[in-house]
Automatic annotation (TrEMBL):
One family name in Pfam for this protein: PI-PLC_X
Superkingdom in the source lineage: Eukaryota
Keywords for this protein: Signal
First and last residue of the signal peptide: 1-23
InterPro entries: PI-PLC_domain, PLC-like_Pdiesterase_TIM-brl
Alphabetized PANTHER family for the sequence: PLC-LIKE PHOSPHODIESTERASE, PTHR13593
Protein known as: PLC-like phosphodiesterase
GO molecular function, one term: phosphoric diester hydrolase activity
Keyword set includes Signal: yes
GO biological process terms held by the UniProt record: lipid metabolic process
Length: 416
């Protein structure tokens, strides 16, 4: 028989043993420890802002206090390819849509049209640079009072900036793993605050990338990686060609302080890739650059040279060989670096060859897919609508197009 003291000692021993067993790591927490340790061993920082030590923390070796936290979210595919996540924004080539808002058929190119597809379709197809030309509107009800027009709002009015940015914002929300760029030609030298009004009212400012406070320009090797931008949810880069004011609108950056361009309105090949437009005092050595890869035709109208897209050569101009010849020439002239941006007219002509060339420059696999929307959204009779494509690539000037040009010149003359 046990005496009372022996019973008490036995009970105490059982209690101690029970506490020790309950304190041991459970199979689940042990598995979490092993899984976290493996994740830490496998972790590789694919972008500068990603910290493996913060992303994966081992639980206490005793397994008593907490479970392993989940891995921090990071992009696994960026702009369509995993290998681009670690690439600096400035070291990727993006295909751009010249006057992306100016929609119509090839036949209407001479009256201010440069694209056939809607902005949403452009982005769906792979366009990652949207170029627009902004003019002050005298009759707009939008808060910014900015319309997107090609040279003259009488010739080509693509609607309000707010309407355009609303469409872009919708696409950006649906495609969080893609970084896009907007390039604004500020034709009437409007203040950056006017553009900020449109960005803020549409919500696109919440997606806009801004460098460190007060930074108007970044050296080419100082841009963040695509992955870090995507992880931060800042996937829209915006440039303006004049009147940038980063002290008040830090996400609308000076185009020519960050990027130089080759000549535009070129009418013959091979394309010229000399430095043509750059901010005064800037050196092109450590800057991004934009290639204007669209061929124009010109004709004289009452003593004025008028430039229109050379649609007769558009399939050749947008062809893989033409683009790569141009890009290789530029790279040979400028530090073996391919252009950051390559601007095109009617990018959908060529059956995806513009994107095939971009894939080659980015050293990623090209995946062919149908380009453009064959049905298009509406008739081309409206200046802001898309029209059905025609196989006849003609650069002839119709009477109606000449009339539109004359009207534009007359308006311009009246303003002088």
């Amino acid at each position: 028989m046990f005496r009372f003291t022996q019973l008490l000692s036995a009970a105490l021993a059982i209690a101690i043993a029970t506490n020790v067993i309950s304190a041991l790591p459970s199979p689940a927490s042990s598995a979490a420890t092993i899984e976290s340790r493996q994740a830490l061993q496998e972790c590789q920082p694919v972008h500068a802002s990603f910290n493996c030590d913060e992303a994966v923390a081992l639980p206490s070796e005793r397994g008593l206090d907490f479970e392993a936290p989940a891995l921090a979210k990071r992009a696994s595919v960026c702009n369509g390819d995993a290998s681009l996540c670690s690439r600096l924004y400035s070291n990727v080539t993006y295909i751009g849509a010249h006057n992306s808002y100016a929609l119509g058929t090839l036949q209407s190119a001479s009256s201010g049209k440069n694209q056939e597809q809607s902005v949403t379709q452009q982005l769906n197809d792979g366009i990652r640079l949207l170029q627009v030309q902004a003019h002050k509107s005298t009759n707009s009800t939008s808060a910014s009072a900015i319309d997107l027009c090609h040279s003259s709002c009488q010739l080509e009015n693509g609607g309000t900036l707010e309407s355009y940015l609303t469409e872009v914002k919708s696409w950006v929300d649906s495609n969080p793993n893609d970084v896009i760029t907007i390039l604004i030609v500020n034709s009437d030298d409007q203040p950056a605050s006017s553009f900020a009004t449109a960005f803020e009212s549409t919500g696109l400012s919440s997606k806009a990338f801004a460098p460190s406070p007060g930074a108007a320009a970044l050296a080419k090797n100082a841009w963040p990686s695509l992955g870090s931008m995507i992880d931060a949810g800042k996937t829209v880069v915006t440039f303006i060609d004049n009147s940038a004011d980063v002290s008040s609108v830090p996400y609308i950056l000076s185009h020519f302080q960050n990027t130089w361009e080759n000549p535009y309105n070129q009418i013959s090949v091979p394309f010229n890739c000399t430095v043509d437009r750059i901010n005064s005092g800037s050196s092109p050595t450590n800057m991004m650059y934009l290639v204007n890869h669209y061929l124009d035709s010109t004709f004289n109208l009452f003593g004025t040279n008028v430039f229109v897209p050379n649609t007769a050569q558009i399939a050749t101009t947008n062809g893989y060989n033409s683009i790569m010849t141009d890009a290789d020439n530029c790279a040979s002239m400028h530090g073996s670096s391919y252009p950051t941006y390559l601007l095109t007219d009617f990018y959908d002509q060529g059956n995806g060859s513009v994107f095939q060339a971009a894939a080659a420059m980015n050293r990623v696999a090209y995946v062919a897919k149908p380009i453009g929307n064959a049905t298009k959204s509406s008739s081309s009779s409206s200046s802001s609508s898309s029209g059905s494509s025609s196989g006849a690539l003609s650069s002839k000037i119709s009477l109606s197009n000449v009339a539109a040009v004359v009207a534009s010149l007359a308006l311009a003359s009246s303003l002088l």
